[in-house]
Amino acid sequence: MVCNASWSQVNHSSLSYHQQLTSHTKAQLELNTTPFTINSMFSLLQGTHTPSSVHASPSGSPPSSTAMESQPQHVTQPTRPRRRIVVAMTGATGAILGIKVLIALRRLNIETHLVMSKWAEATIKYETDYHPSNVKALADHVHNINDMAAPISSGSFKADGMIVVPCSMKTLAAIHSGFCDDLISRTADVMLKERRKLVLVARETPLSDIHLRNMLEVSRAGAVIFPPVPAYYIRAASVEDLVDQSVGRMLDLFDLDTGDFSRWEGWEK
Fold first, then answer.
1. Which of 18, 52, 90, 230, CA to CA, is 20 to 30 A from 126?
2. Are the C-beta atoms of residues 164 and 192 closer than 8 Å to each other?
């Protein structure tokens, strides 16, 4: 009798609770298109009932593709490619400027494409302690000056700009006239026609009317003429300090900061 009475109380209590549950969740159950299962009932009783859009199916299969699409997805950002600059060296004096530019670009993780004339190689050996092979090793890619089929000879080859350092007056004249008889003048011509950055570190003094006229016309075409004039206000302790300052200012034109020189910040108090 005690046992039967206990079961009767349990059944009565369960029925009463079921009636309360039904009235409380009727609206929600009517909206739920997923079949209401024993598992979902216990989830509701425990306060862990999840929205119908992410219910598992009665068979225990994974949520539908529609439900998965509603969840935040991790998107992998594409890796930005390295910036790419063409460096050309001609036979004008000042070979150390080109070498220092290559060193700085390597440190800044810029992809470099080097073109060197035969007279640039001769000047490197005469003016510095470097060998041309050591200088070429500083670049990511080296192109023969006579290779007119090199990638950099085409406008479809993406590059952020070009610097001719040092730039001889012969090369300046070739760029001015559009006479592309080697890879240096051809690549410079590409930079102008594609409206990309072209910096010419013109190294000559004094300058004739022809030099000045060529510089003016090339500047009007879009190039930047950069004579490597020393900045005496830095009170350089060595020639290397002057070179570093000039190289830093050259690369400023490509929005690159070498951090190797002091910038003007007004008169010292």
1. 230
2. no
* β-pair type (141-143, 84-89): unpaired
Q: Indicate if the pLDDT at residue 92 is higher than 80.
A: yes
pLDDT surpassing 90 at residue 190: yes
The CA–CA distances, whole Å, from 251 to 57, 59, 191, 199 equal 62, 65, 17, 9
The burial of 171, by beta-carbon neighbours within 10 Å (0-12 exposed, 13-18 middle, 19 or more buried), is given as buried
Q: State the amino acid at position 110 in one-letter form.
A: I
Distance, first Cα to last Cα, the chain: 105
- Report the share of the chain in percent with pLDDT over 90: 64
pLDDT in tens, 35-64: 444 455 445 445 544 444 444 444 555 555
Q: Point out which residues pair with 162 in neighbouring strands.
A: 86, 198
Q: Residues annotated as binding site?
A: 91-93, 117, 168-171, 203, 233, 249
> What are the strands of the beta sheet with 84-89, ordered from one edge?
141-143, 111-116, 84-89, 161-167, 197-202, 224-225
C-beta separation of 125 from 131 below 8 A: yes
Annotated binding site for dimethylallyl phosphate: 233, 249
Task: Read off the pLDDT band of 73 (50, 70, 90).
Answer: low
User: Which residues are known binding-site members for FMN?
Assistant: 91-93, 117, 168-171, 203
Question: Which domains, and CATH codes, for the chain?
Answer: 84-252 (3.40.50.1950)
Strand, coil or helix: 88 = strand
pTM: 0.71
